[in-house]
Design goal:
- This protein folds into 2 domains: about 100 residues, Rna Polymerase Sigma Factor, Chain: A, CATH 1.10.1740.10; about 80 residues, Winged helix-like DNA-binding domain superfamily/Winged helix DNA-binding domain (Arc Repressor Mutant, subunit A).
- About 70% of the residues lie in helices and about 0% in strands.
- The termini are far apart.
């Protein structure tokens, strides 16, 4: 049986070959970008997922969404800003899809074992309480405070989260007040 070759089949084949060539050209750039900035993805995964398997799944989903959007990335924003935006949007949509977990379930003690730069045991304890308090924030509040703690400017946070610069300032002040109210009783 001989297969009939049509103009649409030739066109489709040409498109597939063109896509493979484009993918081969984009792949090294993409791998370089992700390799150099994978900490962004890990931070978002750790912030939005408690279990290791959930973090792995989210990491893969974020990579997939980054790859899908890579060709459309025009460079209007910094690559890291674009990565944060994609990672946070993916995490938030993934978070919505999953069942809500019971309140009070936060990050495990293992994840709180972040060494203090000075070696101060009080700083470690305060950091643990801070991360527990952050884990109780809404998904958008978590994103904003994570970016703020990483010393991103209000303009960068606004661009990543998709709100105005002024709204970022308001949100940060409200988040700080919430965190202070949550943490203060433990250190009074």
């Amino acid at each position: 049986m001989q297969m009939e070759i049509t103009q649409s089949a030739i066109t489709q084949n040409a498109i597939e070959v063109g896509n493979r060539i484009a993918v081969k050209e984009l792949k090294p750039e993409f791998i370089h970008l992700v390799t150099n900035n994978q900490g962004i993805i890990h931070k978002v995964c750790n912030l939005y997922c408690d279990a290791a398997d959930e973090r792995e799944d989210l990491f893969q989903e974020i990579l997939l969404q980054l790859w899908k959007g890579y060709k459309a990335f025009k460079g209007d924003a910094k690559p890291t800003t674009w990565m944060y935006r994609v990672a946070l949007n993916t995490a938030i949509s993934s978070f919505r899809k999953r069942k809500r977990r019971p309140m009070g379930q936060g990050l495990s003690d293992y994840e709180f074992q972040i060494p203090s730069p000075v070696g101060d045991p009080d700083a470690d304890e305060k950091r643990v309480f801070l991360y527990k308090a952050i884990s109780k924030l809404s998904k958008v509040e978590k994103a904003i405070i994570m970016l703020y703690l990483e010393e991103h400017s209000y303009d960068e946070i606004a661009e990543i989260v998709g709100i105005t610069r002024n709204h970022v300032g308001v949100k940060i002040n409200r988040i700080k007040a919430k965190l202070k109210k949550t943490i203060e009783p433990y250190f009074s």
